[in-house]
Amino acid sequence: MQALVIVAHGSHLNPDASTPTYDHADTIRETGVFDEVRTGFWKEEPSFREVLRTVESDEVYVVPLFISEGYFTEEVIPRELRLDGWDLDEWDSDGTSATHATFEATDVGKTVHYCGPVGTHDAMSDVIVRRAESVTGDPDVGPGFALAVVGHGTERNENSAKAVHLHADRIADMDRFEEVKALFMDEDPEIDDVTEFFETTDVVVVPLFVADGYHTQEDIPEDMGLTDDYRTGWETPAEVDGHRIWYAGAVGTEALTADVVIERAADAGADVGSAIEDVRRRTGEATPDTEAGAGD
């Protein structure tokens, strides 16, 4: 038997924080590829520390629904899961290249294949593009449009920005959009000045966040000038300094993110059968076999 455990931050204050985690778990559960699909959280129940005790399978694939490598993926989660012999050197990562490592959780008698975060997987580029398609209602969006991939950014963890640059560069290499840039909330180049960075009139803005919350629904819309008060909402697209801004909201709310979770588990050795193709088909994305994409 093989189980999948999706671990995420969650929140005591924002009830929407865990919604994408539950949604993606449901999508994957419907494929029937895992004997069990469970969720665990830092700020909700079941906790990281207890989630393995909810699993019957002896072999468990743990996928962090986080955007970047850092404190939670490299310290908190392995500690709370009590992975015997956890050693950061096992990752051999440059900040975006961690894939997986296998450990024993002897207190619960399980083999745990611990995966890198979904946010640094190549297939997340597909999800960003799909988010642009969703907000514009155009499956062929690209020509005549620019794309801004937005991250939090922080001087405390350089890996926070690496994931954003990774996907911006990969999508730029696709030659689909007129311009592609990485922008940030707390470091340069800043999202406040979004219209200064693009010549293209139509700009799709996709925040590289797992869930919608304070930053994506309050800070970023006001910082970009979509609205003076987030509580009054904003138009999509919104006219700002001669540009049309198509604001997509958090990338992790896109249904195709479930595919990235499965791909992380598959990279770690899980037998996923046709689940990747099934999820892509059901969420409206072409499969890798029928159309080349950023996740190939």
Automatic annotation (TrEMBL):
Keywords: Cobalamin biosynthesis, Cobalt, Lyase, Metal-binding. InterPro entries: CbiX-like, Sirohydro_Cobaltochel/CbiX. It comes from the Archaea. GO terms for molecular function: lyase activity; metal ion binding. GO terms for biological process: cobalamin biosynthetic process. Pfam families: CbiX. This is Sirohydrochlorin cobaltochelatase. It comes from Natronomonas salsuginis.
